[in-house]
Specification:
It is globular and about 40 Å long. The chain contains no helices and eleven strands. By secondary structure, it is mainly beta. Strand 4 and strand 5 form a beta hairpin. About 0% of the residues lie in helices and about 50% in strands.
Length: about 120
């Protein structure tokens, strides 16, 4: 069982940066892949970035590639998402999620533990 708590959201101007963090409880954190998802108003929740259990492999959606960086520290049970050069279209509620497998997975159906979400708002 993994419990997840996000932090670090807020309001920022376009071009600015934010760093999201996700604190995980449970002894299984290092054995599962993790993902950051986001859901904008009126839109479906989509995967932004994903990482495998040991942190050796990452995936980024095209919309954030080159601007966002995902990392994990298994010794501290934490997950991070560094977001640079933010754009108004990045405005959404961001969720961290744990999958049920160790490998990196982009399929939302594999993610079975979710945080409560943190709001990111980018003004133009």
């Amino acid at each position: 069982q993994v419990q997840l708590v996000e932090s670090g959201g807020g309001l920022v101007q376009a071009g600015g940066s934010l760093r999201l963090s996700c604190a995980a409880s449970g002894r299984t954190f290092s054995t599962v892949g993790m993902g950051w998802f986001r859901q904008a108003p009126g839109k479906e929740r989509v995967l932004v970035a994903a990482i495998n259990g040991i942190g050796s492999s990452t995936y980024y959606a095209d919309s954030v590639k080159g601007r966002f960086t995902m990392s994990r520290d298994n010794s501290k049970n934490t997950l991070s998402l560094q977001m640079n050069n933010l754009k108004p279209e990045d405005t959404a509620v961001y969720y961290c999620a744990a999958s049920s497998v160790m490998r990196l997975t982009t399929a939302q159906s594999w993610y079975n533990h979710w945080g409560q979400g943190t709001q990111v708002t980018v003004s133009s």
